[in-house]
Amino acid sequence: MADGEFLLNLGAMGASSGLSMAFLNPLDTLRLRWQVSSSSSAGAGLFPFGRRIVALEGAFRGLVRPGLGANVLSVGACNALKYASYPVIRDALTRHDGEAGDGVGAMVAASMMSGAMGYAFFAPLYLTKTKLQTLLGTVGPDGRYLDGPRRGHLPAHRSLAQSLGASFREASVALRSASHGGRYGGAHGGAIATLRSLCALWDCGGTTLLVLRGAAISCGQLTFYDLTKRESKRHGVEEGPLLHMGASVVAAFWATTLSLPFDVLLAKWSIASKKEKEQGAWGVARRTLAREGPRILVRGWVPMFSRLTPLYIAGSTMFEQIRIACGVGYYA
Asked: What are phi and psi of 230, to 5 degrees?
C-alpha cells in the first residue's frame, strides 16, 4: 500500500465515522447509562429507562450533550487508525505465511492488532468520553445528583478538556508528593513528574479493558466486513453501496457480540471508586459478576447493535465513496 493511500484511509474513515458518531451520540449515552444503572432501574427495560431520562433531564442534557465532542474525536480517531493499518498488517501477514492474500487467520490477527493499537493509542479520549457518559444523574434543587452512580455529589466535569485537565492535575499532585519524598528529585524531577502525569492519562485498568474491547470489536468489524465483501464477490455479487451496507450489518452483529462483555466491564470501571480500582481491572470484573451475575455481560446488546449498525453503514459507505472519488478503488 502506498503512503498516499494510507493517509487517504486515515482521513476518509476519520471524517466519515466521526460525522456519523455525532448523530448517534444519544444512543451511545443511553446504552452506557443503562449498563451502569442499578438492577432496579435497568429492570424496567431500555426504553422506559430512556423515557425517564428525557422526562427528568431533557433529551439534550441527558442524552445528546454528554461526551459528544469526546465521542466524535475518539471514534473517528480509532476507526481511522484501524482502517488505515488493517490492510497493511493483513497483507504483511499473508505474504509471510505464503497465502494468496485472503487467509481468514490473517484477517483475524490483523483486525485484532489494528484495533488494539488504535484504542491503546487514543485511550485517554475514549476513557474520558465513557466517564462523561456514565457519571451522570438527575440534578436536584441543591445542584447535586439525585440518582445515578454519583448520587449525592455535585457534577464534576461537563467537557473533554475539563475531564482530561482534572485527570492530569490529579496525577500531578500525586507525583509531586512522590517527588518531595525523593522519588523524583534532582534537576530533572519536575520534567519526569510531568511526563508521568501525561502517561497517567492512559489509566492502566481502563486501558487494559479498552484494548481488549478494541481487539474484539475490530475483529468483528474488520474481519467480517472484509470477509463478507470477498465471499459475496466470489459468488458474483457486484461491489457497490448495497454490498457495503450488507457487509456493515454483518460486521455490526459480530462486533457487538464479541465486544459486549468488555464494553460492560469498561463502563463499570468508569464508575468504580478509587478504592475499587486499586484491585485492578480484574478485581472490578470479579466484583461486578459477584454482584450482578453473568447476565450483566450481555446488558446493552440491542442498543449497541442499534448504534453500530448505522455507524458502520454510514461510515463505511461514505469511506468507500471517498476512495472511489479519489481514484484508488474500493477498500480491500
From this structure: -65, -45
> Contact, 319 vs 13, CB < 8 A?
yes
Distance CA 166, CA 169 (A): 5
Cell of 44: 424496567
H-assigned helices in 272-300: 274-277, 280-292
Dump strand ranges (E) for 163-282: none
Q: What global pTM score does this model have?
A: 0.85
Whole-number Å distance between alpha carbons of 307 and 27: 6
Q: What is the sign, positive or negative, of the torsion defined by CA atoms of 316, 320, 323, 328?
A: positive
Residue 159 dihedral angles phi and psi, to the nearest 5°: -140, 165
Place of cell 475518539: 74
pLDDT (tens digit per residue) in 76-117: 999 999 999 999 999 999 876 555 445 899 999 999 999 999
Exposure string for 148-179, b = 16+ CB within 10 A, e = fewer: bbbeeeeeebeebeebbeebbeebbeebbeeb
How far is residue 59's CA from residue 158's CA, in Å, rounded to a whole number? Answer: 16
Triad 135, 138, 140: Cα angle to 5°: 120
| pLDDT digit string, tens, across residues 41-71 | 666 788 898 998 999 899 999 999 999 999 9
> What distance in Å separates the CA atoms of residue 5 and residue 318, rounded to the nearest whole number?
16
Q: Please give the Cα distance from 93 to 178 (Å, whole number).
A: 45
Residue 145 three-state SS: strand
